[in-house]
Write a structure and sequence with these properties.
Structural class: alpha+beta
Number of strands: 13
Strand content: 5-15%
Strand order of the largest sheet: 1-4-12-11
Shape: globular
Protein backbone atom coordinates (compact mmCIF):
# COMPACT_ATOMS: atom_id res chain seq x y z
CA UNK A 1 0.00 0.00 0.00
CA UNK A 2 1.10 3.55 -0.66
CA UNK A 3 1.53 6.15 2.07
CA UNK A 4 -1.72 7.83 0.98
CA UNK A 5 -3.62 4.55 1.14
CA UNK A 6 -2.30 3.85 4.65
CA UNK A 7 -3.28 7.37 5.75
CA UNK A 8 -6.75 6.84 4.26
CA UNK A 9 -7.18 3.53 6.09
CA UNK A 10 -6.01 5.07 9.37
CA UNK A 11 -8.66 7.78 8.97
CA UNK A 12 -11.27 5.10 8.23
CA UNK A 13 -10.12 3.23 11.32
CA UNK A 14 -10.75 6.24 13.57
CA UNK A 15 -14.35 6.42 12.29
CA UNK A 16 -15.15 2.72 12.66
CA UNK A 17 -14.04 1.85 16.20
CA UNK A 18 -14.79 3.08 19.69
CA UNK A 19 -11.49 3.77 21.42
CA UNK A 20 -9.93 6.29 23.75
CA UNK A 21 -6.52 5.23 22.45
CA UNK A 22 -5.28 6.63 19.12
CA UNK A 23 -4.59 3.73 16.72
CA UNK A 24 -2.72 3.70 13.42
CA UNK A 25 -1.95 1.34 10.55
CA UNK A 26 1.79 1.18 9.90
CA UNK A 27 4.30 -1.12 8.19
CA UNK A 28 4.84 -4.14 10.44
CA UNK A 29 8.20 -5.44 11.63
CA UNK A 30 6.79 -8.99 11.83
CA UNK A 31 8.49 -11.12 9.18
CA UNK A 32 5.37 -12.54 7.53
CA UNK A 33 3.30 -9.33 7.68
CA UNK A 34 3.10 -6.21 5.57
CA UNK A 35 1.11 -3.81 7.73
CA UNK A 36 -0.24 -3.94 11.25
CA UNK A 37 -2.29 -2.13 13.87
CA UNK A 38 -0.29 0.08 16.26
CA UNK A 39 -1.04 2.06 19.37
CA UNK A 40 0.24 5.62 19.56
CA UNK A 41 -0.14 5.75 23.37
CA UNK A 42 0.94 3.50 26.21
CA UNK A 43 -1.60 0.84 27.19
CA UNK A 44 -1.76 -0.91 30.56
CA UNK A 45 -2.35 -4.63 30.95
CA UNK A 46 -6.07 -5.36 31.16
CA UNK A 47 -7.10 -2.14 29.40
CA UNK A 48 -9.66 -1.95 26.63
CA UNK A 49 -8.01 -1.07 23.31
CA UNK A 50 -11.08 -0.72 21.12
CA UNK A 51 -14.58 -1.92 20.34
CA UNK A 52 -15.92 -2.48 16.86
CA UNK A 53 -19.14 -3.40 15.07
CA UNK A 54 -17.93 -5.77 12.34
CA UNK A 55 -19.02 -5.45 8.73
CA UNK A 56 -20.56 -8.93 8.86
CA UNK A 57 -21.02 -11.84 11.23
CA UNK A 58 -22.15 -15.35 10.25
CA UNK A 59 -23.13 -18.18 12.59
CA UNK A 60 -20.96 -21.29 12.26
CA UNK A 61 -21.97 -24.43 10.42
CA UNK A 62 -24.10 -26.91 12.36
CA UNK A 63 -25.11 -24.57 15.21
CA UNK A 64 -27.46 -22.16 13.39
CA UNK A 65 -30.41 -23.53 15.38
CA UNK A 66 -28.83 -22.61 18.75
CA UNK A 67 -27.17 -19.25 17.94
CA UNK A 68 -29.20 -16.14 17.08
CA UNK A 69 -28.09 -14.91 13.66
CA UNK A 70 -28.44 -11.28 14.73
CA UNK A 71 -27.39 -10.84 18.38
CA UNK A 72 -25.26 -14.04 18.47
CA UNK A 73 -26.79 -15.19 21.75
CA UNK A 74 -26.13 -18.88 22.36
CA UNK A 75 -29.26 -20.63 23.61
CA UNK A 76 -27.22 -23.33 25.38
CA UNK A 77 -25.01 -20.85 27.16
CA UNK A 78 -24.47 -21.29 30.88
CA UNK A 79 -24.32 -17.49 31.23
CA UNK A 80 -27.62 -15.63 31.23
CA UNK A 81 -27.99 -12.05 29.86
CA UNK A 82 -28.73 -10.95 33.44
CA UNK A 83 -25.14 -11.75 34.44
CA UNK A 84 -25.92 -14.96 36.32
CA UNK A 85 -25.14 -18.60 35.61
CA UNK A 86 -27.98 -20.77 34.38
CA UNK A 87 -29.47 -23.08 36.99
CA UNK A 88 -29.91 -26.69 35.91
CA UNK A 89 -33.69 -26.48 36.15
CA UNK A 90 -33.95 -23.40 33.91
CA UNK A 91 -35.33 -24.29 30.49
CA UNK A 92 -33.40 -23.30 27.36
CA UNK A 93 -35.66 -21.45 24.93
CA UNK A 94 -35.62 -22.74 21.32
CA UNK A 95 -34.84 -20.30 18.51
CA UNK A 96 -37.23 -19.60 15.65
CA UNK A 97 -36.13 -19.99 12.05
CA UNK A 98 -36.69 -17.71 9.09
CA UNK A 99 -39.71 -19.31 7.40
CA UNK A 100 -38.46 -18.30 3.95
CA UNK A 101 -34.94 -19.82 3.89
CA UNK A 102 -34.91 -21.99 7.06
CA UNK A 103 -31.18 -21.21 7.38
CA UNK A 104 -31.05 -18.33 9.89
CA UNK A 105 -32.49 -18.58 13.41
CA UNK A 106 -33.44 -15.83 15.88
CA UNK A 107 -33.99 -15.53 19.61
CA UNK A 108 -36.73 -12.89 19.29
CA UNK A 109 -38.96 -11.08 16.81
CA UNK A 110 -36.89 -7.95 17.43
CA UNK A 111 -33.67 -9.67 16.36
CA UNK A 112 -35.40 -11.16 13.30
CA UNK A 113 -36.71 -7.74 12.26
CA UNK A 114 -33.31 -6.08 12.79
CA UNK A 115 -31.62 -8.80 10.75
CA UNK A 116 -34.21 -8.54 7.97
CA UNK A 117 -33.76 -4.80 7.65
CA UNK A 118 -30.02 -4.88 8.13
CA UNK A 119 -29.00 -7.64 5.69
CA UNK A 120 -31.15 -10.76 5.59
CA UNK A 121 -33.83 -9.72 3.11
CA UNK A 122 -31.11 -9.28 0.48
CA UNK A 123 -29.49 -12.68 1.02
CA UNK A 124 -32.61 -14.67 1.88
CA UNK A 125 -33.58 -15.51 -1.75
CA UNK A 126 -30.08 -16.93 -2.30
CA UNK A 127 -30.06 -18.93 0.95
CA UNK A 128 -33.49 -20.32 0.08
CA UNK A 129 -31.89 -22.02 -2.93
CA UNK A 130 -28.51 -22.81 -1.31
CA UNK A 131 -29.24 -24.17 2.15
CA UNK A 132 -25.97 -25.98 2.89
CA UNK A 133 -23.39 -23.30 2.20
CA UNK A 134 -20.10 -23.28 4.13
CA UNK A 135 -20.06 -20.44 6.69
CA UNK A 136 -17.47 -18.39 4.80
CA UNK A 137 -19.44 -18.78 1.57
CA UNK A 138 -22.50 -17.46 3.43
CA UNK A 139 -20.28 -14.60 4.60
CA UNK A 140 -19.38 -13.85 0.97
CA UNK A 141 -23.03 -13.67 -0.10
CA UNK A 142 -23.91 -11.53 2.92
CA UNK A 143 -21.10 -9.10 2.15
CA UNK A 144 -21.87 -8.85 -1.57
CA UNK A 145 -25.63 -8.45 -1.16
CA UNK A 146 -25.14 -5.76 1.49
CA UNK A 147 -22.76 -3.90 -0.81
CA UNK A 148 -25.17 -4.19 -3.75
CA UNK A 149 -28.00 -2.88 -1.54
CA UNK A 150 -25.94 0.17 -0.52
CA UNK A 151 -25.56 -0.94 3.10
CA UNK A 152 -21.76 -0.83 2.79
CA UNK A 153 -20.51 2.57 1.71
CA UNK A 154 -17.68 3.31 -0.72
CA UNK A 155 -15.14 3.96 2.07
CA UNK A 156 -15.92 0.61 3.73
CA UNK A 157 -15.77 -1.26 0.42
CA UNK A 158 -12.48 0.39 -0.44
CA UNK A 159 -11.11 -0.77 2.93
CA UNK A 160 -12.23 -4.35 2.20
CA UNK A 161 -10.44 -4.22 -1.14
CA UNK A 162 -7.20 -3.20 0.59
CA UNK A 163 -7.18 -6.24 2.87
CA UNK A 164 -4.51 -8.86 2.21
CA UNK A 165 -6.20 -11.63 0.19
CA UNK A 166 -3.37 -13.98 -0.93
CA UNK A 167 -5.44 -14.25 -4.08
CA UNK A 168 -2.70 -15.68 -6.31
CA UNK A 169 -1.55 -18.18 -3.67
CA UNK A 170 -5.08 -19.46 -3.11
CA UNK A 171 -5.67 -19.92 -6.84
CA UNK A 172 -2.49 -21.99 -7.06
CA UNK A 173 -3.41 -24.11 -4.06
CA UNK A 174 -5.80 -26.97 -3.26
CA UNK A 175 -8.81 -24.63 -2.84
CA UNK A 176 -8.51 -23.17 -6.34
CA UNK A 177 -11.34 -25.20 -7.91
CA UNK A 178 -13.83 -24.47 -5.12
CA UNK A 179 -12.89 -20.74 -5.14
CA UNK A 180 -13.56 -20.51 -8.88
CA UNK A 181 -16.87 -22.39 -8.53
CA UNK A 182 -17.99 -20.14 -5.67
CA UNK A 183 -17.07 -17.03 -7.67
CA UNK A 184 -19.02 -18.28 -10.72
CA UNK A 185 -22.03 -18.96 -8.49
CA UNK A 186 -21.70 -15.48 -6.93
CA UNK A 187 -21.67 -13.98 -10.43
CA UNK A 188 -24.90 -15.79 -11.30
CA UNK A 189 -26.64 -14.79 -8.03
CA UNK A 190 -25.37 -11.23 -7.55
CA UNK A 191 -23.94 -10.16 -10.92
CA UNK A 192 -20.54 -9.44 -9.34
CA UNK A 193 -17.65 -9.96 -11.73
CA UNK A 194 -15.92 -13.31 -11.25
CA UNK A 195 -12.40 -11.88 -10.61
CA UNK A 196 -13.78 -9.48 -7.99
CA UNK A 197 -15.82 -12.24 -6.31
CA UNK A 198 -12.70 -14.42 -6.22
CA UNK A 199 -10.65 -11.71 -4.59
CA UNK A 200 -13.34 -10.83 -2.02
CA UNK A 201 -13.76 -14.50 -1.11
CA UNK A 202 -9.98 -14.90 -0.70
CA UNK A 203 -9.99 -11.79 1.51
CA UNK A 204 -12.66 -13.43 3.68
CA UNK A 205 -10.65 -16.67 3.89
CA UNK A 206 -7.56 -14.71 4.93
CA UNK A 207 -9.08 -12.13 7.28
CA UNK A 208 -12.20 -13.63 8.81
CA UNK A 209 -11.96 -14.17 12.56
CA UNK A 210 -13.67 -16.67 14.84
CA UNK A 211 -16.51 -15.33 16.96
CA UNK A 212 -15.76 -16.34 20.54
CA UNK A 213 -17.61 -15.19 23.62
CA UNK A 214 -16.00 -14.74 27.01
CA UNK A 215 -17.60 -17.97 28.25
CA UNK A 216 -15.07 -20.78 28.22
CA UNK A 217 -17.56 -23.61 27.70
CA UNK A 218 -19.22 -22.02 24.64
CA UNK A 219 -18.16 -23.18 21.16
CA UNK A 220 -16.87 -20.92 18.40
CA UNK A 221 -20.11 -19.17 17.42
CA UNK A 222 -19.24 -18.19 13.88
CA UNK A 223 -17.02 -16.09 11.65
CA UNK A 224 -16.72 -12.32 11.27
CA UNK A 225 -15.06 -9.81 8.99
CA UNK A 226 -13.89 -6.69 10.77
CA UNK A 227 -11.60 -4.40 8.79
CA UNK A 228 -9.78 -2.97 11.80
CA UNK A 229 -9.39 -6.37 13.44
CA UNK A 230 -8.00 -7.71 10.15
CA UNK A 231 -4.90 -5.54 10.58
CA UNK A 232 -4.01 -7.24 13.87
CA UNK A 233 -1.23 -9.67 12.96
CA UNK A 234 -0.55 -13.06 14.53
CA UNK A 235 1.77 -13.82 17.41
CA UNK A 236 2.03 -16.98 19.51
CA UNK A 237 2.58 -14.56 22.40
CA UNK A 238 -0.17 -12.03 21.59
CA UNK A 239 -0.51 -8.64 23.22
CA UNK A 240 -4.31 -8.55 22.88
CA UNK A 241 -7.39 -10.72 23.35
CA UNK A 242 -10.38 -10.57 20.98
CA UNK A 243 -13.84 -11.64 22.14
CA UNK A 244 -17.48 -10.83 21.44
CA UNK A 245 -20.07 -9.27 23.70
CA UNK A 246 -23.24 -9.81 21.70
CA UNK A 247 -22.64 -8.43 18.20
CA UNK A 248 -19.82 -6.19 19.36
CA UNK A 249 -16.16 -7.18 19.01
CA UNK A 250 -13.98 -6.13 21.93
CA UNK A 251 -10.19 -6.04 22.06
CA UNK A 252 -8.33 -5.83 25.38
CA UNK A 253 -4.64 -5.85 26.24
CA UNK A 254 -3.03 -8.98 27.67
CA UNK A 255 0.30 -7.23 28.26
CA UNK A 256 1.44 -3.63 28.75
CA UNK A 257 2.14 -1.93 25.41
CA UNK A 258 4.44 1.02 24.82
CA UNK A 259 3.47 3.89 22.54
CA UNK A 260 4.33 2.84 18.99
CA UNK A 261 4.07 -0.90 19.71
CA UNK A 262 2.14 -3.27 17.45
CA UNK A 263 -1.09 -4.85 18.69
CA UNK A 264 -1.16 -8.60 17.98
CA UNK A 265 -3.61 -11.45 18.39
CA UNK A 266 -3.31 -15.22 18.01
CA UNK A 267 -4.80 -16.89 14.95
CA UNK A 268 -4.54 -20.39 16.45
CA UNK A 269 -5.30 -22.22 19.67
CA UNK A 270 -2.18 -21.68 21.83
CA UNK A 271 -2.77 -24.99 23.62
CA UNK A 272 -1.97 -26.91 20.44
CA UNK A 273 1.46 -28.32 19.71
CA UNK A 274 4.12 -26.16 18.06
CA UNK A 275 3.92 -28.09 14.80
CA UNK A 276 0.12 -28.00 14.78
CA UNK A 277 0.18 -24.22 15.15
CA UNK A 278 2.73 -23.98 12.36
CA UNK A 279 0.68 -26.25 10.09
CA UNK A 280 -2.42 -24.08 10.55
CA UNK A 281 -0.67 -20.75 9.94
CA UNK A 282 1.12 -22.16 6.90
CA UNK A 283 -2.03 -23.70 5.38
CA UNK A 284 -4.51 -20.90 6.14
CA UNK A 285 -2.33 -17.78 6.23
CA UNK A 286 0.73 -18.70 4.13
CA UNK A 287 3.39 -18.15 6.77
CA UNK A 288 5.25 -20.41 9.17
CA UNK A 289 5.20 -19.19 12.74
CA UNK A 290 8.02 -20.13 15.12
CA UNK A 291 7.70 -19.11 18.74
CA UNK A 292 11.14 -17.72 19.71
CA UNK A 293 11.40 -19.57 23.02
CA UNK A 294 10.58 -22.91 21.39
CA UNK A 295 12.50 -22.64 18.12
CA UNK A 296 15.70 -24.29 19.40
CA UNK A 297 14.13 -27.62 20.36
CA UNK A 298 11.04 -27.68 18.24
CA UNK A 299 11.86 -31.02 16.58
CA UNK A 300 12.34 -32.64 19.95
CA UNK A 301 8.92 -31.55 21.12
CA UNK A 302 6.75 -32.36 18.15
CA UNK A 303 6.46 -36.12 18.51
CA UNK A 304 5.78 -35.98 22.25
CA UNK A 305 3.27 -33.14 21.96
CA UNK A 306 1.36 -34.98 19.25
CA UNK A 307 1.28 -38.14 21.38
CA UNK A 308 0.01 -36.16 24.38
CA UNK A 309 -2.74 -34.61 22.26
CA UNK A 310 -3.78 -38.10 21.09
CA UNK A 311 -3.79 -39.19 24.73
CA UNK A 312 -6.13 -36.30 25.59
CA UNK A 313 -8.49 -37.29 22.78
CA UNK A 314 -8.38 -40.91 23.92
CA UNK A 315 -9.16 -39.87 27.50
CA UNK A 316 -12.14 -37.82 26.32
CA UNK A 317 -13.42 -40.72 24.22
CA UNK A 318 -13.04 -43.29 27.03
CA UNK A 319 -14.22 -41.01 29.86
CA UNK A 320 -13.59 -43.90 32.19
CA UNK A 321 -11.83 -43.56 35.52
CA UNK A 322 -10.76 -47.20 35.47
CA UNK A 323 -8.67 -46.33 32.44
CA UNK A 324 -7.34 -43.14 34.03
CA UNK A 325 -4.46 -44.76 35.91
CA UNK A 326 -3.20 -46.31 32.66
CA UNK A 327 -3.52 -42.98 30.85
CA UNK A 328 -1.56 -41.21 33.59
CA UNK A 329 1.17 -43.86 33.36
CA UNK A 330 1.30 -43.41 29.57
CA UNK A 331 1.56 -39.65 30.01
CA UNK A 332 4.44 -40.06 32.47
CA UNK A 333 6.38 -42.11 29.91
CA UNK A 334 5.76 -39.61 27.12
CA UNK A 335 6.79 -36.53 29.06
CA UNK A 336 10.11 -38.08 30.15
CA UNK A 337 11.35 -38.67 26.60
CA UNK A 338 12.09 -35.28 24.96
CA UNK A 339 14.36 -33.83 27.66
CA UNK A 340 17.74 -35.06 28.91
CA UNK A 341 16.74 -34.77 32.57
CA UNK A 342 13.40 -36.46 31.92
CA UNK A 343 11.42 -33.46 33.19
CA UNK A 344 8.84 -31.91 30.87
CA UNK A 345 8.23 -28.26 31.79
CA UNK A 346 4.97 -28.23 33.75
CA UNK A 347 3.82 -25.04 32.08
CA UNK A 348 4.28 -26.23 28.49
CA UNK A 349 1.20 -27.31 26.58
CA UNK A 350 -0.43 -29.68 26.19
CA UNK A 351 0.42 -30.85 29.73
CA UNK A 352 -1.95 -28.38 31.49
CA UNK A 353 -4.71 -29.43 29.04
CA UNK A 354 -4.01 -33.08 29.86
CA UNK A 355 -4.39 -32.40 33.60
CA UNK A 356 -7.62 -30.51 32.86
CA UNK A 357 -9.02 -33.50 30.94
CA UNK A 358 -8.10 -35.87 33.79
CA UNK A 359 -9.78 -33.48 36.26
CA UNK A 360 -13.06 -33.55 34.30
CA UNK A 361 -13.01 -37.37 34.17
CA UNK A 362 -12.45 -37.59 37.95
CA UNK A 363 -15.21 -35.03 38.60
CA UNK A 364 -17.71 -36.88 36.41
CA UNK A 365 -16.87 -40.07 38.32
CA UNK A 366 -17.40 -38.34 41.70
CA UNK A 367 -13.70 -38.53 42.60
CA UNK A 368 -13.46 -35.02 44.03
CA UNK A 369 -10.01 -35.61 45.54
CA UNK A 370 -8.59 -36.75 42.19
CA UNK A 371 -10.35 -33.91 40.39
CA UNK A 372 -8.87 -31.39 42.82
CA UNK A 373 -5.30 -32.67 42.36
CA UNK A 374 -5.54 -32.66 38.57
CA UNK A 375 -7.35 -29.34 38.36
CA UNK A 376 -4.76 -27.62 40.57
CA UNK A 377 -2.04 -28.93 38.26
CA UNK A 378 -4.00 -27.79 35.18
CA UNK A 379 -4.36 -24.19 36.37
CA UNK A 380 -1.30 -23.57 38.53
CA UNK A 381 1.17 -24.93 35.96
CA UNK A 382 0.04 -22.58 33.18
CA UNK A 383 2.92 -20.56 31.77
CA UNK A 384 1.02 -17.26 31.60
CA UNK A 385 -1.48 -16.18 34.24
CA UNK A 386 -3.23 -13.72 31.98
CA UNK A 387 -6.04 -13.85 29.48
CA UNK A 388 -8.98 -16.14 28.91
CA UNK A 389 -7.06 -19.41 29.27
CA UNK A 390 -6.01 -18.49 32.81
CA UNK A 391 -9.53 -17.29 33.74
CA UNK A 392 -11.25 -20.45 32.51
CA UNK A 393 -8.67 -22.82 34.03
CA UNK A 394 -8.92 -21.01 37.39
CA UNK A 395 -12.72 -21.10 37.28
CA UNK A 396 -12.61 -24.87 36.68
CA UNK A 397 -10.38 -25.20 39.75
CA UNK A 398 -12.63 -22.95 41.85
CA UNK A 399 -15.69 -25.06 41.00
CA UNK A 400 -13.90 -28.26 42.03
CA UNK A 401 -12.52 -26.77 45.27
CA UNK A 402 -16.11 -25.64 45.99
CA UNK A 403 -17.15 -29.32 45.79
CA UNK A 404 -14.34 -30.18 48.19
CA UNK A 405 -15.93 -27.84 50.76
CA UNK A 406 -19.33 -29.56 50.65
CA UNK A 407 -20.44 -31.55 53.74
CA UNK A 408 -20.69 -34.82 51.78
CA UNK A 409 -16.94 -34.74 51.14
CA UNK A 410 -16.09 -35.28 54.82
CA UNK A 411 -14.46 -38.64 54.03
CA UNK A 412 -11.58 -36.87 52.30
CA UNK A 413 -10.56 -35.23 55.56
CA UNK A 414 -10.67 -38.37 57.70
CA UNK A 415 -7.14 -39.39 58.58
CA UNK A 416 -5.80 -36.50 56.47
CA UNK A 417 -3.16 -34.67 58.50
CA UNK A 418 -2.09 -32.36 55.65
CA UNK A 419 -5.12 -30.07 55.36
CA UNK A 420 -8.57 -29.49 56.84
CA UNK A 421 -11.92 -28.27 55.53
CA UNK A 422 -11.10 -24.82 56.96
CA UNK A 423 -7.98 -24.82 54.77
CA UNK A 424 -10.16 -25.60 51.75
CA UNK A 425 -12.45 -22.68 52.56
CA UNK A 426 -9.45 -20.35 52.92
CA UNK A 427 -8.08 -21.44 49.56
CA UNK A 428 -11.51 -21.08 47.98
CA UNK A 429 -11.86 -17.50 49.28
CA UNK A 430 -8.44 -16.58 47.96
CA UNK A 431 -8.98 -18.18 44.55
CA UNK A 432 -12.38 -16.51 44.18
CA UNK A 433 -10.77 -13.13 44.79
CA UNK A 434 -8.08 -13.82 42.17
CA UNK A 435 -10.73 -15.13 39.74
CA UNK A 436 -12.78 -11.93 40.02
CA UNK A 437 -9.70 -9.77 39.50
CA UNK A 438 -8.48 -11.85 36.54
CA UNK A 439 -11.91 -11.86 34.89
CA UNK A 440 -12.29 -8.09 35.23
CA UNK A 441 -8.76 -7.58 33.89
CA UNK A 442 -9.40 -9.89 30.94
CA UNK A 443 -12.96 -9.08 29.88
CA UNK A 444 -13.72 -5.76 31.57
CA UNK A 445 -16.07 -4.96 34.45
CA UNK A 446 -19.13 -4.53 32.19
CA UNK A 447 -18.84 -7.89 30.45
CA UNK A 448 -21.75 -10.24 31.11
CA UNK A 449 -19.28 -13.02 31.92
CA UNK A 450 -17.49 -10.86 34.51
CA UNK A 451 -20.83 -10.10 36.15
CA UNK A 452 -21.68 -13.81 36.22
CA UNK A 453 -18.38 -14.63 37.94
CA UNK A 454 -19.12 -11.94 40.55
CA UNK A 455 -22.59 -13.44 41.04
CA UNK A 456 -21.11 -16.94 41.42
CA UNK A 457 -18.58 -15.67 43.94
CA UNK A 458 -21.25 -14.01 46.07
CA UNK A 459 -23.38 -17.17 45.95
CA UNK A 460 -20.47 -19.33 47.17
CA UNK A 461 -19.33 -16.92 49.85
CA UNK A 462 -22.85 -16.51 51.24
CA UNK A 463 -23.02 -20.29 51.78
CA UNK A 464 -19.58 -20.56 53.36
CA UNK A 465 -17.92 -19.90 56.66
CA UNK A 466 -17.04 -16.40 57.89
CA UNK A 467 -14.02 -15.03 56.07
CA UNK A 468 -10.99 -14.21 58.24
CA UNK A 469 -10.33 -10.53 58.81
CA UNK A 470 -8.91 -8.91 55.68
CA UNK A 471 -5.73 -7.85 57.49
CA UNK A 472 -4.62 -11.32 58.36
CA UNK A 473 -6.28 -13.22 55.55
CA UNK A 474 -3.28 -13.22 53.23
CA UNK A 475 -1.13 -15.02 55.83
CA UNK A 476 -3.91 -17.51 56.60
CA UNK A 477 -4.47 -18.12 52.89
CA UNK A 478 -0.78 -18.77 52.21
CA UNK A 479 -0.58 -21.36 55.00
CA UNK A 480 -3.71 -23.13 53.78
CA UNK A 481 -2.67 -23.04 50.11
CA UNK A 482 0.76 -24.49 50.94
CA UNK A 483 -0.91 -27.40 52.73
CA UNK A 484 -3.17 -28.12 49.75
CA UNK A 485 -0.30 -27.90 47.27
CA UNK A 486 1.83 -30.30 49.32
CA UNK A 487 -1.07 -32.78 49.34
CA UNK A 488 -1.49 -32.37 45.53
CA UNK A 489 2.26 -32.79 44.86
CA UNK A 490 2.71 -29.27 43.49
CA UNK A 491 5.63 -26.96 44.28
CA UNK A 492 4.67 -24.16 46.67
CA UNK A 493 6.20 -21.64 44.28
CA UNK A 494 3.39 -22.45 41.82
CA UNK A 495 0.76 -21.10 44.22
CA UNK A 496 -1.30 -17.97 43.69
CA UNK A 497 -0.04 -14.81 45.40
CA UNK A 498 -3.18 -12.90 46.32
CA UNK A 499 -3.24 -9.14 46.67
CA UNK A 500 -3.69 -7.51 50.05
CA UNK A 501 -7.27 -6.37 50.59
Amino acid sequence: MTHDQIAKLSTYLSHQVTSTIPLEIRPSSIAHAKHGLFTTAAIREGEEIFRSDPLITCVDDGIQNVVCDYCLSYSRSNVLPSGQFRQTEEEMQPLKTCSRCNVCYYCSKECQLNAWRGYHKYECPILSKKKNLFVRTRALYRLITMQKAGLIDAEQWDAVNHLEAHHTKYLRGPLSTSIVEIAISAKMETNMRIPEAQRIYCAILTNSMSIKSAEGSAPVLGTTLDVVGSFMNHSCNPTALVFFEGRQMRVRSLLPLRAGEEITQTYVDPSGSVFLRQAITEKDYFFKCVSPDEAGWIQKLDNSQQRLLKLINHAVAQHNQTELANLEADAEKIIREPFPNGVWPDDMQPLPSLYGTFARICKDNNDVAGATRCSLKASLTLRERTGDIWVHALFDTVQIVTLLCLPEQHAIFKGNSLFSKDDCWNVLYGYLGELKRATTRTFGSNSTYTKSIAWYSEAVLSAGQPCPGARRFRAVFNISQNKLLEWAGIEKSKGIAILAE
